[in-house]
Specification:
The protein is mostly helical. The chain has helices at residues 22-43, 48-89, 105-131, and strands at residues 2-8, 11-17. It has a two-stranded antiparallel ribbon with strand order 1-2.
Amino acid sequence: MAELTITVGGRRFEVACRDGEEHLLQTAAAILDAEAQTVVGQAGRIPEGRLLLMSGLLLADRTIAAEQALDEANARAAALEAELAALRQAPAPEPVRVEVPVIPGEVTDRLAEFAARAEAVAARLEERGTAV
């Protein structure tokens, strides 16, 4: 067993813990000391038992609030997981039909006619250029 001296609210305490858990105990003591410092700052010097009681109650209050928040987060996560599972099991949505405008046939016919005329004019110009 490891023995440590911790300080809570300005008071020193000798405590024991299992070997290898010293860091956990020191961390817990630091959290309790922070609460005790808050109590001492608000109430001044109070008896040791009352200081530890008030510090413990403050920590319990924070723990309850954290557990409630965790429960709410777990419930929200479960709801989201259920929604995700339902989405995964749902059939794929029907493809969306998109209509692309098509150039009317008469416009393409006219363009082809203009292209043929332009080629004819170009051919005549080439003939004149070689005949000169």
